[in-house]
């Protein structure tokens, strides 16, 4: 689906298969964001395709978060989906814990402060914007806790893994 929410927003194409195998084709114009989304897809075992019109700025981050949230809302809204998930994941010295509920009440609670970080052209605070847009569009109550971590790339990897595992659990339809 290629769409634009407003004239100021970039073009965006997102396809999500929550019953996938972890394949990802991501092209946002920001290598760090691409890596984060690939990590999330691989860990959740979602097939995910994301393509933006380029530029790699705040508008792309917001659009990706919103578009991914909309796609997740569909997966979380399937009959029988757990709608709750939680996971802890490491990446070298970093350890992150993510819990979420598809509550319909968007909220992000996080102790992660990456405002001073800069990774490959991506301001660290844009991760927070991505999570807020995702939670808003998917109707998620999302808690992100960094239990330990100093290297910013490892922190992002740990959060991406924990978020992927939590989303996989929330989208799962348990056998009755």
Plain-language structure description:
This protein has helices at residues 31-44, 58-76, 125-138, 152-171, and strands spanning 2-3, 12-17, 24-27, 47-52, 84-91, 94-102, 107-110, 118-119, 122-123, 140-148. With 176 residues, it is of the alpha+beta class. The protein has one domain: Ribosomal Protein S5, domain 2, CATH 3.30.230.40. Helix 1 runs parallel beside helix 4 (152-171).
Can you write the helix and strand succession as a string? Answer: EEEHEHEEEEEHEH
Major sheet: size, sense and barrel closure?
Answer: 4 strands, mixed
Tally of discrete structural domains: 1
Spatial strand arrangement across the major sheet:
1-2-4-3
- Say how many strands there are: 10
SSE class: alpha+beta
Highest CATH level, the class: Alpha Beta
Helix content bin: 25-40%
CATH-wise, what's the superfamily? Imidazole glycerol phosphate dehydratase, domain 1
Q: Tell me which CATH architecture applies here.
A: 2-Layer Sandwich
Strand content: 25-35%
Query: Can you tell me the overall shape?
Result: globular
Q: Please report the number of helical segments.
A: 4
Low-confidence stretches at least 5 residues in length (pLDDT < 50)?
1-7
Rg, please?
A: 15 Å
How many angstroms separate the termini?
33 Å
Q: At the third CATH level, what is the topology name?
A: Ribosomal Protein S5, domain 2
Mean pLDDT: 88
